Amino acid sequence: MGISELNALSVVRDENGRLKKLVADLTIDKNILHKILSKNNLKSTHLRCFIQWIRESYELNVKHTCELVMLIRSSYIHRSRPGDYATLTRRLRELAGLETEVWI
User: Fold this and answer.
1) Angle 57-63-68 (CA atoms, 0-180°, nearest 5)?
2) How far apart are the first and last CA of the chain?
3) How many other CB atoms sit within 10 Å of the CB of residue 64?
4) How many domains does the chain have?
5) Residues 6+ apart with CB under 8 A from 104
6) For residue range 14-47, what is the model confidence (pLDDT) as tens digits?
7) Phi and psi torsions of 72, nearest 5°
8) Which residues contact 33 (CB under 8 A, 6 or more apart)?
């Protein structure tokens, strides 16, 4: 074998390695999507736990997992915090011209 043939062989091996990695990634994606489709009645309250399970089972990052389940990443990361809305409600009622004693 000549040097040019060895260089060409090296390029082919590199391309083969890249394609094998791509196939492995797509196989993981296929398995994850199959699990999602089999749980099509997944409630929103369980979605965060499901995403966490996918991340742990398949060792994926948040961005990739959220793309797979078609969820905006900020929706997964955001944690809602209950707050005291009494002051806000009172002020909105004042602005609307309603009495403050009326309950919502």
Assistant:
1) 65
2) 85
3) 16
4) 1
5) 89
6) 999 999 999 999 998 888 877 776 666 666 667 7
7) -70, 130
8) 68
**Structural domain contains residue 103:** no
Give the predicted TM-score (pTM) of the model.
0.45
Does residue 104 fall inside a structural domain?
no
Instruction: Break the chain down into helix, strand, coil percent, rounded to 5.
Output: 70, 0, 30
Per-residue tokens: 47:
């979605």
Residues 29 and 53: their CA atoms lie apart, in Å, by 14
CB-based contact 75:81 (threshold 8 Å): no
**Continuous segment of H or E residues that includes residue 49:** helix 44-58
Domain with 66, as residue range(s), is 3-96
